[in-house]
Amino acid sequence: MLAQAIEVEVQSLLDNFTSLQANSKQGVVRNGHLPERHLQTGFVDVTVKVLKVRDRTGSEIKFNSILVSAYLKRTKNIEELIHWLYLRGISTGDMQPALRSLLGKQAKGVVSKQCFSTQAAVGSKIRPVV
User: Fold this and answer.
1) Which of 11, 87, 90, 93 is most buried, judging by how many CB atoms fall within 10 Å of its CB?
2) Helices vs. strands in the chain: H and E counts, helices first
3) 64-97 tens-digit pLDDT
4) Predicted local confidence at residue 123, as pLDDT
5) Distance of alpha carbon 17 from alpha carbon 47, whole angstroms
6) Any residues with CB less than 8 A from the CB of 101 and at least 6 apart, and which?
C-alpha cells in the first residue's frame, strides 16, 4: 500500500512537468529507486523502496516523498512511546527490557538518544517550587 502511495506521489510530480522537454524528450522522468530502507513502525518493520526522478532539463527538479522523508527510520508512534515511558518515571535501565521486545537489538541506542532529548525538553520546562 505504501508503494502505491509513493507511486501516486511520483506520478503527480511527473504530471506537473509534462510540458518540460529536453531534446524533444520528456524533461522529467522516472530513474529507478533509491536503496531499500527499513522503517520501524509500532507493529511491524516495513521495507520501502522510494522511486527516483531524473530532471533532464537542468532545472534541478527533485522528488522528495511526503510519506517517507529522507532520513525517516521510525514512525512517530514509537518515538512517542519512548517519551511516554520516560515521563511516567521509568528509568533508562528499566526501559531497555520493555522496549527490546518492540525494537529488537536497536533498543539500546534508540532509548538513550530519545531519553536525552526528552530530558532536555522536560528540563527546560521545569520550574523550581517556591
Assistant:
1) 90
2) 4, 6
3) 888 787 877 777 666 666 666 666 545 445 555 5
4) 62
5) 29
6) none
524528450: which residue's cell? 25
Specify whether the CB–CB gap between 45 and 74 falls below 8 A: no
R_g of the chain computed on alpha carbons: 21
Please give the C-alpha separations between residue 97 and each of 26, 94, 107, 115, in angstroms, as whole numbers. Answer: 54, 6, 9, 15
Work out the pLDDT band at 106, boundaries 50, 70, 90: low
Position 102 in a domain: yes
79: cell is: 518515538
Torsion of CA 46, 38, 73, 32, to 10 degrees: -110
Residue 94 lies in a domain: yes
Domain count for the chain: 2
**Distance between CA atoms of residues 130 and 37, nearest Å:** 51
Q: Please check whether residues 87 and 49 belong to one and the same domain.
A: no
> Which range marks the domain in which residue 97 is found?
76-121
Handedness of CA 22, 24, 27, 31 (dihedral sign): negative
